[in-house]
Amino acid sequence: MAAVWIKRKKNELETGVAPAFALDAKRKKSGNRARNRVVMAIACFVGIYSVIGGRLIYYGIQEDTTGYNGPTGTVLAARPDILDRNGEVLATDIKTNSLYAEPKKIIDPDEAIELLSTVLPDLNFEQTYSRLKSKAGFAWLKRGLTPQQKSQIMALGIPGIGFRTEKARFYPGGPTASHILGLVNIDNQGIAGMEKYIDEHGLSDLRDAGLADSRSLEPVKLSIDLRVQHVVRDVVVQAMQKYSAIAAGAVVLNVKTGEILAMASAPDFDPNNPYNALEKDRLNRMSAGAFEMGSTIKSFTTAMALDSGKVNLQSTFDARRPITIGRQTIRDFHGKGRVLTLPEVFIYSSNIGSAKEADVVGIDGHREFLHRMGLLDRMVTELPEVARPMEPKVWKKVHSITIAFGHGMATTPLQTAVGAAALMNGGRLMPPTFLPRTIEEANKVAKQVVSEKTSEDMRYLYRLNAEKGSGGSGNRATVPGYRVGGKTGTAEKVINGRYSKDVRFNAFVAAFPIDKPEYVVLTIVDEPKAEAGKIGATAGFNAAPMVQEIIRRSASFLGVQPDFNEEQISAPMMVNFNQ
Amino acid sequence: MLRTFDIILIGLMIAAASITYKIKHDAEKQMNQVTKLERMISDEADTIDLLKADWSLLTQPNRLQKLVETFQGQLDLQLVEANQIINLNDLPQPKPVVFDSVADIITEASAKDLKPDATLTGSVAKKSNTAPKGAAQ
């Protein structure tokens, strides 16, 4: 059937019957040229359109990515807010408006200034006038305006002025937590304190990836309690003035979690205007300053002796004669000149007794113990500003003796507080942290450094010391209802290579409530003088009252219940203590 | 026939073009609206940030302390002392007059029908045993 149809069609073509095929005949006449042209034209158009289409798709994809991230300027500057443990703002980014003028375009400078001064009364008249009169293309008039001021100025309708939004880091508390929060530079990058920590732990990577959008950044919560932090700083600053000291500092540490609730060191700086932040005198003495901590170290000497198991609370030490070693003679400040029991050595702060305590474990044992307590190694915490403790390269007998009462080695006050916390909480040493941490997390990173029993004995000794301590030094720290226990430390400072008699570094380390410690408070005063109208500038007169003031004002914030029933001390075991 | 078909096609084309144009125009209008709203939202967010900062500035303990010191004459605020803080449990119990009468009715009623429960007596007895111990401590 099909063969017949094809044959008929062929016949028709040959005879020229079908007029529709006239073109076909023409093509045959002019060969294949026309078809080639059509194909070429088609190829040209396909080529051009595919290039255009390809470019369109390319631009389409391009626009998609740039449009998503917004302007890069704001991405670079964004930082997360920093909050305290209760969600109070410690540091935040705010957008401020800065007013600029284009003097070339300003018609009447006098009128412009007159109008501007209705909104900005503190505008410097002469300076602004000379700026507006000049023929410069651009001049800043005023930076850091509020949105209200901005809209008011806009409403004035002055030609030739405009606004630029700038992102600035703002610290509502000013100097309150300056050393903890640290600083940012002009590019909003953290250069000190927790700001630097945030940058190092992800923020700078996010920025490099272009993902650090101000709205998507989660705020960073610290372990700091703003109220306690204020109390601590207030006390520290007042103490510095009251005792005419060159510096003072304090820290409040949670014994169970290692969280730092508050830490202040004076003199400090205002992070909103950090012109003097890099002065050497304004460093964070609590973590970045290493000091000879004096008698507070006797806590560790005593704990070491107790933990060795070779002595107990009934052991006695002969403190009748000063120890002479080489050219040095070790004497007691509150000398009793008799045989002392271990609690007496502690509460009378006997240097001779402490040296004998250290003797129990030997030189290597002593050194090993202080390393175990983390006092001689660089502390690991979030703050970048941490000093390395100093110890003798080779320990000799004399070193062990002097270090027993806190001379001859230097460590940071924060480390001392952390070590003391380990003595209080049942012997678990945990690295301090500025970020919130639960007890379970703390127990995971904690290291058992002394036994539970030693810790219990130390709690008893701290309480005892606060009740009847050396020259009543400790009891200036007691707060009725809050059961404070602690140890003073008065170290003589080295002036021109010799220990000076009246230039001192004082410290007080305390724990409360001492029957079940929750917080350790450590205060330091550098080179205090006697308070006006009083005599004595040892730790009991300045560092201890600071602790008292801090605990009295902040205990209720810290959630410690006052209890007046447990004021009397009970020894953890039978003690011969009848003095 | 061809002509009508052409006219229909041309009409369709024009209609399609105008509808496309209208959709595009509307979309642009909507986009403008969206960007405008987005700008307003970000302005508001910035204002919220600023107000938050302002709020924390106004509620700084530092500032409050200064205010208290300045207006001490009028306010006469004092530090809370430890002995002013007590637990809810430390509060003296008010005499449960009404409750007592109800309890009496219940005990009277139950005394008629039931004997005291064994566990109840047990617990009461235990309580009286521990009480002197606690007092001794």
Which short descriptors sum up this protein?
heterodimer, A: 579 residues, alpha+beta, five-stranded mixed beta sheet, elongated, disordered C terminus, B: 137 residues, mainly alpha, 78% helix
Summed up, what is this model?
By secondary structure, chain A is of the alpha+beta class. Chain A has helices spanning 2-15, 22-29, 33-69, 72-77, 109-119, 125-133, 147-156, 178-181, 193-208, 226-242, 285-288, 298-307, 342-347, 351-372, 397-404, 413-424, 439-445, 452-468, 539-554; strands spanning 82-83, 89-101, 139-145, 161-170, 183-184, 190-192, 220-221, 247-254, 260-266, 316-318, 323-325, 328-330, 339-341, 428-429, 447-448, 485-495, 498-512, 519-526. The termini of chain A are far apart.
Describe the fold and architecture.
In chain A, 40% of the residues lie in helices and 18% in strands. With 579 residues, chain A is of the alpha+beta class. In chain A, the strands form six sheets. In chain A, strands 1, 2, 3, 4 and 7 form a five-stranded mixed β-sheet that branches. In chain A, a hairpin with a 2-residue loop joins strand 16 (485-495) and strand 17. Chain A is elongated. Chain A starts with a helix and ends in a 25-residue tail after the last helix. Residues 65-75 and 573-579 of chain A have low confidence and may be disordered. Chain B is elongated and about 110 Å long. Mean pLDDT of chain B is 78; it is low at 120-137. Chain B has helices spanning 2-58, 61-70, 72-75, 97-113, 118-136. With 137 residues, chain B is an all-alpha fold. Chain B starts with a helix and ends with a helix. In chain B, 78% of the residues lie in helices and 0% in strands.
